[in-house]
Amino acid sequence: xxxxxxxxxxxxxxxxxxxxxxxxxxxxxxxxxxxxxxxxxxxxxxxxxxxxxxxxxxxxxxxxxxxxxxxxxxxxxxxxxxxxxxxxxxxxxxxxxxxxxxxxxxxxxxxxxxxxxxxxxxxxxxxxxxxxxxxxxxxxxxxxxxxxxxxxxxxxxxxxxxxxxxxxxxxxxxxxxxxxxxxxxxxxxxxxxxxxxxxxxxxxxxxxxxxxxxxxxxxxxxxxxxxxxxxxxxxxxxxxxxxxxxxxxxxxxxxxxxxxxxxxxxxxxxxxxxxxxxxxxxxxxxxxxxxxxxxxxxxxxxxxxxxxxxxxxxxxxxxxxxxxxxxxxxxxxxxxxxxxxxxxxxxxxxxxxxxxxxxxxxxxxxxxxxxxxxxxxxxxxxxxxxxxxxxxxxxxxxxxxxxxxxxxxxxxxxxxxxxxxxxxxxxxxxxxxxxxxxxxxxxxxxxxxxxxxxxxxxxxxxxxx
Length: 465
Ligand code: FAD
Ligand code: NAD
Known about the structure:
With 465 residues, the protein is of the alpha/beta class. It has helices spanning 15-26, 41-46, 48-68, 85-109, 166-169, 186-197, 217-229, 320-334, 363-369, 384-388, 421-429, 434-438, 449-459; strands at residues 4-11, 31-35, 113-116, 118-123, 126-131, 134-145, 149-151, 163-164, 178-182, 201-205, 233-235, 239-243, 249-253, 259-263, 266-269, 273-275, 289-290, 293-294, 307-309, 348-350, 355-360, 373-379, 395-401, 407-414. Bound molecules: flavin-adenine dinucleotide and nicotinamide-adenine-dinucleotide.
């Protein structure tokens, strides 16, 4: 097979790698991208998109089940729903297929060459790829590592049999009767809630004192309340130890130090993700590391000249939109543009019920920085749109500097609140002050009015509370 020489080689076609390659192609750089799997990476194939499809199906099912229960105030009656999970999964796969084909089309349009196979570094400028038709050598002036992350396996709970990762959970064809979720973080809560709505008896085992420990207690309270209403048992301060000899039962060390046994049809382990940095020759380059992640500077450059790294492989937050933003920036840097990572905030959204959004600094973050702040909170129980949609749990919280009212952070919890993340992000990125948010006309009746009201509240003159 003839060797390939190119200006830019991107390893990994997830949201980091494929965005980088598309932008590089648009800028006229001779670009090659390699992936061992379908383009789209974790996010499109076994992450963001399939999980949100499953969450949507579960919400629809739960809504109809609620109407069918006869306990709704709307005067609507409905028959008890049923679900054919095989069909749901097939629909999810169609959505995934449309998106991954779309990515292939975009890469083609940008004149990026796609090579399928596992890449392996030979040296800092050369990579070999085992393709279906043989070994392909690729030489590049610049290489971008975008190999992403993989689920963490617990020593006593190797994946296989009843013990599954999020990847298998997203393709189950039957709803398990009893599902134990180990890890009450992003994936555990998003998927645990979905399976509970579909009829599984769900138990969540979380090692920390609270679920979603990365968010403050005020933000997670409405989520805990909903988990309880759904009948999900949450064990906090509890560590998964392993399976009983016969299998099918999880041994847990509880907060009090005693041992509990949890019988389960499936045990979903969601205790974090690890960067994909080993087993493909990267170790031999001896790049500077930041713990398990590749160390990068404000241009995503690694310690070796001509090698960049982006996305999950570079650390927290492991989010698709961070990976894509890094990818877009690196493509422009390679094309000679002057760019550095100067983002003020990376929005985080947790698709729980209700959803959580966090952008910028929380009141707790400002305590460590010592900044003098003002905080305004507006509850959805005082928002007309929320009342008309049975979505009164939650609030919008705005954190601003006390002296000049510069908005430092915005957090919210509430139904459908994910869609406000762009407005929150824009306010912070544009350097908005409380007066800017309060002075922007927010359409009525929408949940977004709670954002404007939170700003009024922080300024000391709320209108609707
Ligand atoms: P990845 O998407 O992991 O892509 C890396 C690619 O590199 C893969 O396609 C892999 O096959 C390829 N690769 C690795 N090694 C090699 C090699 N040696 N040779 C060739 N190819 C290789 N994030 C959000 O922002 N929002 C969400 O709602 C969200 N939901 C999620 C739900 C789940 C269940 C999971 C698991 C993750 C979710 N994430 C979410 C996280 C998101 O998927 C990741 O942050 C994102 O995919 C990281 O992008 P990346 O480009 O860095 O890597
Ligand atoms: P996570 O870090 O969000 O949560 C892992 C949880 O497992 C933590 O709360 C931790 O305390 C707990 N834990 C660790 N060891 C344990 C043990 N032995 N027993 C019990 N609990 C234990 O990780 P995740 O849920 O696997 O998700 C991985 C990453 O994927 C996230 O950090 C996030 O970056 C990304 N993700 C994002 C979204 C989103 O943006 N909506 C959705 C899913 C995943």
